[in-house]
Amino acid sequence: MARIGIDIGGTTIKFGIVNDEYEIIAKTSCDTCAERSPKDIMNEIAAQATALVAKAGLTMDDIECIGIGAPGTCNTRAGIVEYACNLHFENVPLQAEIEARLGRPVRIDNDANTAAYGEYIAGAAKGSDSFILITIGTGIGSGIIFNGKIYTGCNYAGAELGHIVIQKDGILCGCGRHGCFEQYGSATALIRQTREAMEKRPDSLLWKYAATLDDVTGNTPFEAMKAGDLVAGELVANYMRYLTCGLTNIINIFQPELMCLGGGLSNEGETLLSPIRLYVAEERYSKYSLHQTRLEAAKLGNRAGIIGAAFLDRAHS
Ligand code: BGC
After folding, report:
1. What is 128-297's CATH superfamily?
2. pLDDT, tens digit, 9 for 90 and up, residues 38-55
3. Ligand 1 centre and the CA of 85: distance in Å?
């Protein structure tokens, strides 16, 4: 039977109808417009999901269940998004509201937990006993899977690895702390760092790959670096040092079998991963251990959040 998976990101909401083989048979997306009220966002989610089911030639009766990944602390038992620092969600009863609108059972969980579960059941982490997914996007998300289950801590707020501090008294984060990993290692942070470099260096090739500061994406500095631009090269190396700092902290705590990087930047593949593997190897505590955490790119890309969400009923059972 078909299921619906919905991935609420800081920038885009992605929807997919997923079959029992973990294939997405129909999909759509819309802008999150995070400044909207939770009610407006939920109305749009219901409308988009309804239209997608019709587009796939199905009715809601063909849908076994619906899963939603949302940023922030998702109380999976009560179905409530308790708090999200990058979205104006505070104690939003997402599960009940979507069930009321669509008439099918709904499960929710944190967006990165959901994507990690997707990679675990159908992607890079199939068969792995201990796996951590780090998503690099608007924020930094993280999902920890141990022995086939999502680890959420005692209060559903686990794990928020994007909010470990890597720079004391550093940049103010949306969560209220200063110097969070997310403020230095997210795609948003890289875009900010790129714009700062461009303002200082009008001669940089970065301007060839982004005509205005508004055109900068997380991939802009990588493109300019590959074309030989020294400013971009320095910027990317500096960014990777921040990323390595956060990733090594996480490896030192958990020593998972596998850590994957997801989110838009992970499509840089080995350009991103090779140097990070080297830096992590220099810095990690487990230098002398026989077994080391494998560091890979996530496999499913955007599909991880959709597929994981569609099967959340299994993650929570
Ligand atoms: C939030 C996480 C979320 C991540 C990615 C962070 O700012 O605190 O809950 O998973 O962004 O959306």
Report:
1. ATPase, nucleotide binding domain (3.30.420.40)
2. 999 999 999 999 999 999
3. 7
